[in-house]
Amino acid sequence: MTSSSLPWVRYPTGSDGNGQDLEGVQGLYSYQDLQLLEKNTHEAFTPQKRRMVTRAVIVGGGLIGVELAEMLMTRDIDVTFLVREDRFWGNVLPKEEGELVARHMRDHGVDLRFNTELDEIIPDKNGRAGAVRTKDGEEIECQLVGLTAGVRPNIDWLRDMPIETDKGILINEYLETSQEGVYAIGDCAQFRTPPPGRRPVEQVWYTGRMMGETVAQTLTGERTAYAPGHWFNSAKFFDIEYQTYGKVDAELSNHEADFYWEYDNGQIGLKIVFAKDTHTLIGVNSFGMRLRHEVFDKWLTDERSVEYVLEHLADANFDAEFYQRHEKAIVNQFNAAFGANIRPKRKSWKRILAAKPFAK
Fold first, then answer.
1. Residue 334: which of 292, 287, 274, 245 has the closest Cα?
2. Residue 101: its pLDDT value, please?
């Protein structure tokens, strides 16, 4: 059993509660939404009708919102981006990384507003989206509203069926539901006990693929538990590539410490989270520099120290040839901050290839 996702919330917009159902209000969660976006931005407003879409308002500070903003701006549509939190993607990114992304979005012309919530979507005289009102009372004229506050498992159709659900369909480590012979995978699945270092519901593409592979093994005679390994993900914020490996939460826990380095141009950054007492690597965020997945996965599995990671950081870097290297600057800043004496080693293909799965 698989199922898609639905928009996470419905905003209490309009006096009749239907403001978000106006023409020109949409999300971006499916191919049909992409078709609707083309219609809302171009087919509905042709030059002959003398009204083109000139501004959009996006609500919700996450990856879907960034993708929508970038798409709209390629069509010369101005974007105002409303974020309820005090930084971008505040429930995922630590403060420094959130600020880096926010600067970059503003450099690209996004009107990014924090601590700002949607109160009402106001129709125009034709019954389409014409403006939004924030909870501070400001009205922002627009012809398109994008609601991108996240997604939730699409399980409403299961409510009257004898399958146990919570936020999603509850499953065990074998992806089995409460009904014998029925499995759940993908966006709809919620683990009763998540695998170590993972979340109960993980709505990313590769987990759905891995779950499908796991169920296939069980169905062909080899009952197999889901073992996704260390968390990883990647995305892009306009021009800045983002990667994360392991556990990097928006706020540190009591047993964690971190180190953050940022290049002078404000578009390249590295965050390493490690255990306070043992200095064991817990997770890493990178922005604007490419890191090898298999290398960091091995370092996490081997419980390497942050000192080891920085000493061998060149092994993890796979930026294209002639890109500027930053390992020395990163290590120098760590040494100054923590009183260390790390000396970065040269890249070793022997170590890199040893980290690849086929080398085991």
1. 274
2. 97
